[in-house]
Amino acid sequence: MRAHVQRVSRATVTVDGRVTGAIDGGLLVLVGVARGDGPTEARRLAEKCVRLRCFNDAAGAMNLSLLDTGGAMLAISQFTLYGDTAKGHRPSFVAAAPAEEAAALYAAFCSAVRELGVRCEEGVFRAHMDVSLVNDGPVTLLLEVGAATPPGEAGA
Question: For FRET with 99, which of 22, 34, 38, 42 sits at 20 to 30 Å CA-CA?
């Protein structure tokens, strides 16, 4: 599984003119699910996101996590994180999990975030979403867990 994590001062997701999720401060996390991912990867990625020390402490160093700051998460399903453009200009999504599997693992990720004590707002799986955010910093990080993660990479 992959996560594109952005530290935000606020973020919202709207589907068909209706806000389905909004946070005032915390992390906007785009979540991608790969073929072969399972509940273990969903839990590991949730733990990594919740414990990610990307918020400034009193000295200005990135030492605090969502758990430390009391921030929230807005999680958005994002199969395009597994888009491959190595051959040409049109992305291939063969590495992305099938929709039914991805939906279950996205839900498991969001549930794990909540179980870890963080408020988790959501988009709508497979919907066209308008995501709006104010990036704080900006701070943007890529996280990955699972069998496809190269040794020594984050989340391995």
Answer: 22
| Angle of CA points 51, 122, 75, to nearest 5° | 35
Q: How big is the chain, counted in residues?
A: 156
The residues carrying an active-site annotation are 78-80
Contacts of 143 (CB under 8 A, 6+ apart): 2, 3, 5, 45, 48, 49, 52, 154, 155
Which structure tokens are listed for 3? 């996560």
Closest-CA residue to 19 (of 114, 109, 121, 135): 121
How confident is the prediction along the chain (156 residues), in pLDDT tens digits per residue? 999 999 999 999 999 999 999 999 999 999 999 999 999 999 999 999 999 999 999 999 999 999 999 999 999 999 999 999 999 999 999 999 999 999 999 999 999 999 999 999 999 999 999 999 999 999 999 999 986 555 455 443
